[in-house]
């Protein structure tokens, strides 16, 4: 036999060694993968070794290494990104809306609780507000007397007594005039109703006598059906009178103390304000008081002018109870917009049922003329810029005040809005100045770049 060449034997031996090395590497890779799968997770306690492998029976299986644990995914599995936090996942606009929403809910709840508290002590609140308005009207007189050397106590007593006497005389005069003229007014109203009935019968509206009788019968039936409600309203009137007297007494006492010791009451109130906000509130308080004083004094002057000129107009037109109507016009002038409409309508109705259509039209002309002069000349000239409030704000404030607290709410709505506007404007300016005062001045190139162009 021929012998195999030496190089061919060496080549075959090399291939055999290469195959053995590939088998060894494959076995090492499998062992490494098994070790990776059986390794405990990071941070988990190490697995205790089997204490006695020989103690197990031949049929007893070896303890599982990964009991209760999901094996880790293999290396070729795709990487899954972790889920973001819910706050980060929400859109920015939705997060802002949610943040603002719960704050608005807290504010709404606070306002609701505050309104409940105010409604439970409504008499005290209105008495104090009335005392503030009267004090704003009388305080300049106290200051004038003190400048002339009158002691504070005596000046307060004289001013308060004179003010309350004048207001009491006005109320007594109105009641006296109504009682004196009520009989004559009733007769004139009856005559006016008869004239109105004849006018309707002869008018182009073709109203028949039967239709007028049906309307009158419906009114009588409505009054008879509501007798119990009218009686209960009369009984509740006693409670209203008692509450009114209580409110008058509270108003008088509060006015006396505010006139005599208003400065110390204000200083005590400032002590309840946090120290950080105290300087701003201390500056806003006097400005709010000046606004309230200007509003009350201007409203009194405008109401007096309205009452005098409208009263003179209806007096010369022959409308009965001209003086009580003028007083009603004066009192209703403290309710902006609504008071002028109600008092003017009352004067026109009295003129219609007592003097006829022509006198009612003339009365309406007088009322509209005086109110136009008031709105365009008197109020801007007398009230000035101190209490300038947009007419829309006045209408909304009067409507909201009337819905919440009736006539009293409508009266205090506009001065409250005027004072709030003054306080907000001042606090905004004060906050801006305080921020600029604590901001360091620019230096170097920054100061040159931030300086005005005209410097």
Task: Walk me through what this model shows.
By secondary structure, this protein is mainly alpha-helical. Among the domains are: 123-272, no CATH class; 274-435. The protein contains 13 helices and no strands. The protein has helices spanning 6-38, 86-89, 92-120, 122-147, 152-202, 209-225, 227-271, 278-316, 322-332, 338-355, 357-382, 391-438, 445-450. Helix 8 (278-316) runs antiparallel to helix 11. This is AI-2E family transporter. Residues 1-77 are annotated as: Disordered. It is a multi-pass membrane protein.
Task: List descriptors.
single chain; about 450 residues; mainly alpha; 13 helices; about 80% helix; elongated; transport
Task: List the SSEs and their pairings.
Blueprint: H1 6-38, H2 86-89, H3 92-120, H4 122-147, H5 152-202, H6 209-225, H7 227-271, H8 278-316, H9 322-332, H10 338-355, H11 357-382, H12 391-438, H13 445-450
Helix pairs in contact: 4-5, 4-7, 4-8, 5-7, 5-9, 5-10, 8-9, 8-11, 8-12, 9-10, 10-11
**Average residue pLDDT:** 75
- Percentage of helical residues? over 70%
Number of helices: 13
What series of H and E elements makes up the topology? HHHHHHHHHHHHH
- Which stretches are poorly predicted, pLDDT < 50 over at least 5 residues? 450-455
SS-based class: mainly alpha
List how many beta strands DSSP finds.
0
Give a quick precis of the structure:
This protein is mostly helical and 455 residues long. Helices cover 78% and strands 0% of the residues.
């Amino acid at each position: 036999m021929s012998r195999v060449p030496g190089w061919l034997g060496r080549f075959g031996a090399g291939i055999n060694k290469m195959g053995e090395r590939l088998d060894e590497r494959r076995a090492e890779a499998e062992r490494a993968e098994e070790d990776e799968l059986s390794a405990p997770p990071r941070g988990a306690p190490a697995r205790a070794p089997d204490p006695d492998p020989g103690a197990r029976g031949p049929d007893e299986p070896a303890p599982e290494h990964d009991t209760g644990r999901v094996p880790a995914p293999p290396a070729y599995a795709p990487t899954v990104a972790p889920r973001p936090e819910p706050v980060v996942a929400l859109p920015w606009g939705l997060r802002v809306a949610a943040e603002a929403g719960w704050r608005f809910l807290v504010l709404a709840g606070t306002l609701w609780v505050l309104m409940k508290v105010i409604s439970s002590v409504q008499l005290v609140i209105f008495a104090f507000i009335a005392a503030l308005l009267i004090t704003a009207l009388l305080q300049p007189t106290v200051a004038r007397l003190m400048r002339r050397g009158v002691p504070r106590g005596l000046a307060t007593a004289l001013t308060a007594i004179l003010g309350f006497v004048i207001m009491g005389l006005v109320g007594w005069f109105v009641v006296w005039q109504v009682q004196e003229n009520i009989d004559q007014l009733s007769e004139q109203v009856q005559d006016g109703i008869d004239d109105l009935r004849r006018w309707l019968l002869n008018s182009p509206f073709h109203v028949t006598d039967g239709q007028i009788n049906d309307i009158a019968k419906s009114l009588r039936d409505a009054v008879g059906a509501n007798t119990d409600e009218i009686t209960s309203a009369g009984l509740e009137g006693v409670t209203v009178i008692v509450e009114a007297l209580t409110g008058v007494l509270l108003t008088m006492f509060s006015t006396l103390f505010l006139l005599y010791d208003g400065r110390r009451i204000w200083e005590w109130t400032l002590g309840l304000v946090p120290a950080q906000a105290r300087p701003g509130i201390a500056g806003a308080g006097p400005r709010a008081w000046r606004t309230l004083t200007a509003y009350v004094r201007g409203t009194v002057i405008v109401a007096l002018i309205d009452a005098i000129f409208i009263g003179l107009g209806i007096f010369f037109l022959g409308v009965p109870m001209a003086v009580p109507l003028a007083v009603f016009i004066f009192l209703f002038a403290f309710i902006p917009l609504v008071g002028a409409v109600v008092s003017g309508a009352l004067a026109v109705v009295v003129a219609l049922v007592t003097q006829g259509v022509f006198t009612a039209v003339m009365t309406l002309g007088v009322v509209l003329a005086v109110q136009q002069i008031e709105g365009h000349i008197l109020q801007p000239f007398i009230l000035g810029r101190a209490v300038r409030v947009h007419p829309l704000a006045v209408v909304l404030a009067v409507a909201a005040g009337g819905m919440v607290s009736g006539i009293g709410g409508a009266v205090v709505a506009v001065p409250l809005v005027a004072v709030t506007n003054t306080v907000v404007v001042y606090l905004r300016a004060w906050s801006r100045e305080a921020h600029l005062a604590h901001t360091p001045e620019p230096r170097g190139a920054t100061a040159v770049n931030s300086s005005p162009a005209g410097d």
